[in-house]
Amino acid sequence: MVAEMIPLFGPVPGGMELAVILLIAVLLFGANKIPKLARSTGEAMGEFKKGRQEVETELAEMQNSESDAANADSNPTVDAETSDSA
Known about the structure:
By secondary structure, the chain is mainly α.
């Protein structure tokens, strides 16, 4: 059985659809604003990726510290001489 991939956003527009979308964008924003819009969109995506990586790193560190704490609780290394004298 072959697993079928389900697209998240539906079908990707073809050549004519992209031309219509581009024409509407030029009419709405003007030809001078489109490069600025694309640049700001790219910067926003970069910031989003950077923030996502920071969150993933923090989560991984939290999981590692929790597993280290669990291992320390389950395997206490107590010196036999100090526990006998107490």
